[in-house]
Amino acid sequence: MAAERPRRGSGGGSRPARRRSAFTPPKQVRLRDADGTRRPGPSTDGEGEAIHREGGERLQKVLARAGCGSRRACEALIASGRVRVDGAVVHEQGVRIDPAVQVVHVDGRRLQLDESKLTLVLNKPRRVVSAMSDPEGRRDLTEFTAAHPQRLYHVGRLDYETEGLLLLTNDGELAHRLTHPSFEVDKTYVCRFDAPGGPPRGLVKALREGVELEDGPARADRARVLAQDGREAVVEVTLHEGRNRIVRRMFASQGFELTALVRTRIGSVLLGDLAPGATRELTDRELGTLMAEVGL
């Protein structure tokens, strides 16, 4: 009787078992028939989940509608391996997908394919409540959402006297991640205050190193002086915390009361030159980048 062949990795002269690399390459999706011919057909992401959906839309058409370029340009994106569907790299032009349920990334940036979802940038004016209604009868956010049929909600808050960038959306998962502390989304504020003789040298350092507040320490990720004229000073502060009135309280802890406070950035989204009270829809690139920042 022939000797039993030794198993790999069990000695007996067999090859040593290969170590699995810590790097997991992206899954590749190539559609082929049994004879090896490439053509559109059912495929999986390597874990048994179907990528190609018969009756779905061609992937390059979905990409073009999402603002990734012309059909030809989108075909080039697919051919170069820059497109993933449900986590798998797709190379073939014949793939059809269901954009209502499948997730598509281009160069690591997610595309929002659900056309019912809407995310707006609002430049909230001063003396507007960050709520959809106010029992005291003050101005609220409904006047800025009335033109849209979607039921939009604010992402986080700005206090009554603070103006600047506020996001309005009906995407619950995006809103949750943007406001959850674990994702640490940066926010930038421009702070104006009276400072005869200029701000003290230790102010910016104190903001960076951390100050004590009644509900615990707070620290700016970045802080810098933008302007000073001997009467007023303007300081830009970036932080990822979202406690109530935290920027105003940080300055108050150092003896300064802010006379104006404007939020100019959330994550990669900039307020820019949007007028107070005006809104605009996020661009596809802005939305995709923002979603990538919070792991969507």
Main pleated sheet: 9 strands, mixed
Task: Specify the helix fraction band.
Answer: 10-25%
Mean pLDDT: 84
Which ranges are low-confidence, i.e. pLDDT below 50, for 5 or more consecutive residues?
Answer: 1-48
Full CATH superfamily name of the largest domain: Pseudouridine synthase
Return the CATH class of the largest domain.
Answer: Alpha Beta
For the record, the CATH architecture of the largest domain stands as 2-Layer Sandwich
Task: Describe it.
The chain is of the alpha+beta class. It folds into two domains: 27-110, Roll (Structural Genomics Hypothetical 15.5 Kd Protein In mrcA-pckA Intergenic Region, Chain A), CATH 3.10.290.10; 119-281, Pseudouridine synthase. It has seven helices and 18 strands. The protein has helices spanning 59-65, 71-79, 142-145, 172-179, 202-209, 246-252, 284-293; strands spanning 27-29, 57-58, 83-85, 88-90, 96-97, 104-106, 109-110, 119-124, 153-155, 163-169, 187-194, 211-213, 216-218, 222-228, 232-239, 258-266, 269-270, 279-281. The strands form four sheets. Strands 8, 9, 10, 11, 14, 15, 16, 17 and 18 form a nine-stranded mixed β-sheet that branches. A five-stranded mixed β-sheet has the order 1-4-3-6-7. Helix 1 (59-65) crosses helix 2. The longest helix is centred in the C-terminal third of the chain and has 10 residues, at 284-293. The chain is elongated, with a radius of gyration of 26 Å. The model is unreliable at 1-48 (pLDDT under 50).
